[in-house]
Amino acid sequence: MALDELKQVTIDYYVNLQRIKKADTGNNPELEYQLRVVKNKLASLGIPSEEYEM
User: What pLDDT shows up at residue 24?
Assistant: First the structure.
């Protein structure tokens, strides 16, 4: 997978998790953990996650 493809897949995954978080009305520790992991991946790719937060 090319770097550009990896970046796009990671962004898409983060945005999807953000949608789930917005729709989720309860406490979901696994979702919070997944969001932290993906934010770190985005940061390591040089992509600021703040641009994709809802």
Answer: 84
Q: Is 20 left (phi over 0), alpha (psi -120 to 50) or beta?
A: alpha
Closest to 7 (Cα-Cα) out of 41, 37, 30: 41
**pTM score, whole prediction:** 0.87
b vs e for 19-53, b when ≥16 Cβ sit within 10 Å of the residue's Cβ? eeeeeeeeeeeeeeebbeebbebbeeeebebeebe
Position 51 scores a pLDDT of 82
Report CA-CA distances (Å) from 49 to 8, 23, 25, 26. Answer: 12, 19, 22, 23
